[in-house]
Amino acid sequence: MMINKKVRNIQQKLLSDNYYILNRVTFDYLMPSGHWVNQMREVYDRGDGAGILLYNKAKKTVILIKQFRMPTYLSDNEDGSLIEIAAGMLDKDNPEACIIRETEEETGYRLKKVKKVYEGYSSPGVMTEKMHFFVGEYTEAMKVNEGGGLDSEAEDIEVMEIPFDRAVEMLHKGEIVDTRTIVLLQYAIIHKLIE
Ligand SMILES: Nc1nc2c(ncn2[C@@H]2O[C@H](COP(=O)(O)OP(=O)(O)O[C@H]3O[C@H](CO)[C@@H](O)[C@H](O)[C@@H]3O)[C@@H](O)[C@H]2O)c(=O)[nH]1
Ligand SMILES: [Mg+2]
């Protein structure tokens, strides 16, 4: 941890801990020219996350979810709804336990086994978050409730079971614009999860 000799004098100033943590971080950075320059970054820390692509080989389907995402609505997403993989923030549990819990809350399927495929920083210039990516097979027998998210968190999640071919078409037509979902659909294509 923190062994980079080109970086020193890191200072953090808390800008907000209203919900998660936003810090203003200043530091000195040694340029290739040999000069130290003072730099500033605002860094958002809301912990790490996990996401999963659920797929069924026999039915040749995947499960995605649709929900309202305010930041995209403030950007250019017309009605603010976004098609995504099931995903959640790690509380104190490990990524695997987290994704199994989130899958049940959001989609209604209780998985026993998941496969970790990637780890990656979500938005490395801005936030600390690292995402843990999983894939998992689901069957009708694993369905324990309707999903839809937690009322206590005011979640309104639509569960979408769709043919894998349709998901790939949506990907290629630009109807899927969540990076994490793009990553896992591409994983499924590359590794022929469904044929
Ligand atoms: N009041 C309040 N509640 C919040 C706020 N931010 C999040 N929440 C609550 O925290 C819940 C988080 O639900 P999760 O399912 O755990 O997380 P997520 O929003 O699906 O996040 C996943 O996707 C993100 C990408 O959009 C990832 O960044 C994240 O790591 C995770 O994978 C939300 O439903 C909401 O109730 C906030 O600023 N204020
Ligand atoms: Mg979620």
UniProtKB/TrEMBL annotation:
It catalyses: GDP-alpha-D-mannose + H2O = alpha-D-mannose 1-phosphate + GMP + 2 H(+). It comes from the Bacteria. Residues 45-184 form the Nudix hydrolase domain. One of its GO terms (biological process) is nucleoside phosphate metabolic process. One of its GO terms (cellular component) is cytosol. GO terms for molecular function: hydrolase activity, acting on acid anhydrides, in phosphorus-containing anhydrides; metal ion binding. Keywords: Hydrolase, Magnesium, Metal-binding. A motif (Nudix box) lies at residues 88-109. Pfam families: NUDIX. Transmembrane segments: none annotated. Its cofactor is Mg(2+). Mg(2+) binds at residues 87, 102, 106, 155. Homodimer. Belongs to the Nudix hydrolase family. NudK subfamily. This is GDP-mannose pyrophosphatase.
